[in-house]
User: Which sequence fits this backbone?
């Protein structure tokens, strides 16, 4: 059993095509990650998030034969999760822009962005998570999602390109715009003075 747990994703995919019991190990590997991603991008309850992830895994299983081996499996499954979130948004109009990030998520996001924003220390040692949450909630959905993928899900530009089906150059541009937008929101509401003294 340990062999399955240590296998590369692509090998597990091939085995899952022959033996559906192997699919369990793919699910186990990605269940927490995809559930966390869904919760970071939506305001759904835990039960609703579990319903979404169930749909994600059903679609993954049904489409394993169509998995493009040129892509990373992780990018492919995140793409399916992204599509399912968009589908749920269209069906239920759930609010994607009011994502309730945890304090740790907020700190990680700001710490990650910090090096690329000339902030003179404005985002270091966060003391007021609620103000940060307010600033992040004001970002357009597309910027919020791309920052979550880059800085919280730790996806590379190429992986984000695969997930969102946008050219890598567009991903880079949107990340820069998202960071600039976040910086403006913080300055506009003078949150930098409140976040860190």
Assistant:
């Amino acid at each position: 059993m340990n062999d399955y747990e240590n296998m590369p994703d692509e090998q597990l995919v091939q085995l899952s095509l022959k033996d559906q019991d192997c699919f369990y190990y793919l699910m186990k590997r990605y269940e927490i990650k995809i559930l966390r991603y869904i919760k970071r991008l939506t305001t759904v309850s835990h039960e609703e998030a579990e319903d979404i992830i169930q749909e994600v895994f059903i679609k993954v299983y049904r489409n394993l034969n169509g998995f493009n081996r040129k892509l990373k499996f992780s990018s492919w499954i995140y793409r399916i999760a992204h599509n399912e979130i968009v589908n749920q948004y269209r069906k239920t109009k759930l609010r994607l822009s009011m994502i309730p990030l945890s304090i740790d998520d907020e700190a990680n996001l700001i710490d990650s962005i910090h090096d690329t924003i000339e902030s003179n220390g404005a985002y270091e040692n966060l003391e007021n998570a609620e103000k940060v949450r307010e600033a992040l909630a004001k970002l357009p959905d597309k910027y919020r999602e791309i920052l979550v993928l880059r800085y919280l899900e730790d996806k590379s530009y190429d992986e984000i390109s695969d997930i969102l089906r946008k050219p890598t150059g567009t991903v880079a541009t949107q990340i820069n715009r998202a960071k600039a937008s976040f910086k403006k929101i913080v300055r506009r509401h003078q949150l930098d003075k409140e976040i860190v003294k």
User: Anything to note?
Assistant: The chain has two domains: 2-92, 103-195.
